[in-house]
Amino acid sequence: MRAPAPHGVWLNLSFMTVTVPSFAKINLGLRIGPLRPDGFHGLRTVYQTIALHDMIRVSVDRGSGIEIRCEDPRVPCDRTNTCYKVVERAMAALKTRGRVVVEIDKRLPVQGGLGGASGNAVATLLALERALRKTLGPTEKLRIAAEVGSDLPLFLIGGTVLGVDRGEEAYPLPDLPAMSCVITQPEIAVSTPRAFSDWDRLSESKLTAPSQSDRMLEFSREISAWLSAAPGSRSRRRSGVSAMNGGRAENPLLDLVRTGIENDFEKVVFPQYPELREVKSVLERAGAKYASLSGSGSAVYGLFDLRQKAAVAAKKLNEGGTRAVVTSTLTRRRYWKKLQMSD
Fold this sequence. Notes:
This protein has about 350 residues and is an alpha+beta fold. The chain is about 35% helix and about 25% strand. The chain folds into two domains: about 10-175, Ribosomal Protein S5, domain 2; about 180-330, 2-Layer Sandwich (Alpha-Beta Plaits), CATH 3.30.70.890. It has helices at about 80-95, 115-130, 140-150, 190-205, 210-230, 250-255, 265-270, 275-285, 305-320, 330-340; strands at about 1-5, 10, 15-35, 40-60, 65-70, 100-105, 160-165, 170, 180-185, 290-295, 300-305, 325-330. Helix 1 packs antiparallel against helix 3 (about 140-150) and helix 7 packs across helix 8. The chain is globular and about 55 Å long. The two termini are about 25 Å apart.
C-alpha cells in the first residue's frame, strides 16, 4: 500500500536499501593553471577510473533528514560530507521527501588523490535514484555533481575522461583497453590546499618560465595531437615516460602517456615527501610503462603491460613497508556494468 508524502509526493512505505561500489580514479597528467578570481585554479587533466572502490549503502524510509555513517574518523558525517550535499540537492530536484541514510564502507585512503570523496558522492546519487525508483536527467545529475565538487562529474562518465577548469567540466575520451595498475597507499595525508599554495609560490619564483596559460595550452595541444594521431604516426618521447619510441602503441592508453604528460603536483609534493618520489622510482625500475602521483597525492601509481609484472612490483613495495595493491583500469563499459550489477 502506498501513502502520500507531504506536498503530494508519493513514497514507497517499504524500507529499501541499495548498495553500489564507489570507484577510484587516477590522473594521467595534470596541468595547473593560474589562480582564478573565484580562488580556484584552472586545471587540465585526463582522469582514468580504476577498479579499487569503497562501498556505499543508501537506505530510504518514511520520515525526513539525512544521516551519514562511516567508521573512519577522518570522514566527516555532517553537512560538509559530499554525500550529504548530493542527497540534499537530489531530493530537492526530485521533489521527494524521506529519511535517507548513507553508509560509507571506506576502503580507499582519505586524502590519497584517488577521488574517494567525489566517487562516494556520485555512487550515493546513483544508489538514491534506485532506492527512490526515480531518475534525474543526465544534465541535472551533472549540474548537481559540479555544484558539489570539482571531481564529481568524471564519475558520471567513467573510463577515460578529460577534465577542464576545476574538473567540473568533464568530457568522455575514447574508451581505452584496460591495463594492470599498481596503486601505492603511503601513510601520508597530502593537503591539496597546501599543495596549491606551494605551487603558486613556486610559479612566482620562476619569472622566466613559460606562463601558466601557455602551459595549459600546451597540454591541450598534446591531448589533441594524441586524439587525432593516425595509426603508424610517430610521437616523440618526453621526460617521465618510459614507453619505447616508435609508432602508435598497441595499447592507446600507453600512446597517451607517451606524449609526455606529467603531474605538476609532483614538483611541489615530492620535495615535501621524498619517499613518494622513491615509490615512483621503484615502480619505474620494476617495469612500469608509466608512473605518477595521482592528483595531489599521496597515492602513486604505475601502469604495467603484464599483471605478473605488476604483482612483482607490488610485492617489492609491500616488503619495503609501502602498502601497494594490484588492480586494473576500468573502461567506461566495464565501469557502468559493475555499477549496474551491484545491489
